[in-house]
Amino acid sequence: xxxxxxxxxxxxxxxxxxxxxxxxxxxxxxxxxxxxxxxxxxxxxxxxxxxxxxxxxxxxxxxxxxxxxxxxxxxxxxxxxxxxxxxxxxxxxxxxxxxxxxxxxxxxxxxxxxxxxxxxxxxxxxxxxxxxxxxxxxxxxxxxxxxxxxxxxxxxxxxxxxxxxxxxxxxxxxxxxxxxxxxxxxxxxxxxxxxxxxxxxxxxxxxxxxxxxxxxxxxxxxxxxxxxxxxxxxxxxxxxxxxxxxxxxxxxxxxxxxxxxxxxxxxxxxxxxxxxxxxxxxxxxxxxxxxxxxxxxxxxxxxxxxxxxxxxxxxxxxxxxxxxxxxxxxxxxxxxxxxxxxxxxxxxxxxxxxxxxxxxxxxxxxxxxxxxxxxxxxxxxxxxxxxxxxxxxxxxxxxxxxxxxxxxxxxxxxxxxxxxxxxxxxxxxxxxxxxxxxxxxxxxxxxxxxxxxxxxxxxxxxxxxxxxxxxxxxxxxxxxxxxxxxxxxxxxxxxxxxxxxxxxxxxxxxxxx
Length: 513
Prior knowledge:
InterPro entries: LytR/CpsA/Psr_C, LytR/CpsA/Psr_CW_biosynth, LytR_CpsA_psr. The chain is of the alpha/beta class and 513 residues long.
């Protein structure tokens, strides 16, 4: 066996010029995952039990978790692995690595990390994305970039097993992979306070064969792209990609206007196109293509050993409508200089735990955020403000769970009478609406919430004010960890990022950088 290289956390390529990353680097499109989960349901429940058993029979599994937790909810760690081996630990051939522009770095780095929380009834889901360069505490190793946790655990296990006399490369790869996954799970659990129930890993290099199995993936670029590091060489406009080109498409970050952020958006667009190819491209009805797809999945996907995927897919039927939202963990400093790991993204574990806990726990007024709170229970304003008294109702027009309740509590703490909280149709602009006699009170509310615009609405009763929180809200209690924007693949008027122009689409596929 050749000497094992200690390359944990090392960059594969020369670092690009430093730039400040946006806090929404890791924000992911909710609808993409909804479609992918829907595709899973179609494949598992629609293609037939015998084929499902055939798929599982060759699927790689790993001893990672202890199975479902006692709370009934399901928390899944989804990992995208940039690895030089397949799902079973077999080295990829040199010609494949060359064609895929894999480079010569042998480290096992997790380029995509998502914690997906599905409540007991399975009707919705929320995912938390972790930037790969997040600087966190790795149990037993101190603070390092989160994408190195897997590799650190794997290398330590391989070294220990080698000392014990294990020499078979496949066995070492299996034991090392199990240890790496367990360390990554422990790292996420320690950072978030969430117990991981299940684990799913996709070898990103295996995506090349999956795209070939489905007959290619439709994508669209706003401008031509060329990058020697990833092998990207694409014209502008709509096109269908597969194999090495598909991998280059999702891996490129050099030469893109916003670096990693544009790469994240590309990955979302790619997943949308992949889902379209599987669901709408006749793959499910084509036995030959399904055989190729199953074989590709078997080569590139690893699941935890205790996961009953068929039962899980059955639970997900309620998600087919797209009741999935994604956000990123809170970020303190997107350009933090570490002592040993170069530039990283600084996060505060306490804020991460608080953000996740608040998001997955239903608001006190119910998950739909609709409730009526007696006005008499609200805090009373002081005498100096008695000339501008009106009861404030707060409506949430965003995807941030519990936001209306938090704003209501903030107003109550400021001494304002508060009424009900509820939901409103999605919108980007926040506004304070009032009747003709409540302009002064509305102006005060607007000032307290970050100088929101106000408008008169004759439908609002006297003595009542209505606050509608849109996705542009930046006032008190705003979810800093979930900035506006993100790609919405089912909305023709979506925006690719918070400050980007309206997205361009080609036959339903978003055009991206």
